[in-house]
Specification:
about 220 residues; eight-stranded parallel beta sheet
Amino acid sequence: MKKIQISPSILSADFSRLGEEIKKLEEGGADLIHVDVMDGHFVPNLTIGPPVIKNLRKYTKLPFDVHLMISPVHKYIENYAEAGADIITIHPEATENLKNSINLIKKFGKKVGVSLNPKTTISTLIDEIENIDLILVMSVNPGFGGQKFIHSSIDKISKVRKMIDDSGRDIRLEVDGGINSETIGLASEAGADTFVAGSAIFNTENYEQTISELRSKIV
């Protein structure tokens, strides 16, 4: 398996000191910074926009793993690319034409992620597998942090892992939702290699220790 990556979600961070939080994550051994962007329309929550991401860019050299839960997503891709996103992940349901949105992300030189909600079938990805750099399996219904892991996601992770392996491409398999010291082992055993963790990290005092403990649970 390729190098495991931990991508802490700043959705669970202290928003009054996001810059400091991001510095602590980098010092604590995080591989990516996961930025959840929500519009109150596609998902029932509001978070941050491009200006905040642009301002946060100066606090770390880690890649920004930007998950767009907004609709219509296509017209905002340029804004997030210019704000400093390194990976832009979108939902098939949030765009009128998935191929066009993927091509637009690539046009701006960013890595392409596609996210699968719990009810989204993996067949959605078949036609675009050659153009994707990351597949994000949501193990909760997107919108709020702190939700419990949906265990039926394990089967989906396994199926996506097979799809990736069969494609022969270097595609990361990320899982987001309810990831903690218990569920990270289940997800990794099913084939995930990139893990988004929010509450499991930010509800602790020592981020470095927590990130290390999460890595130790990976199968």
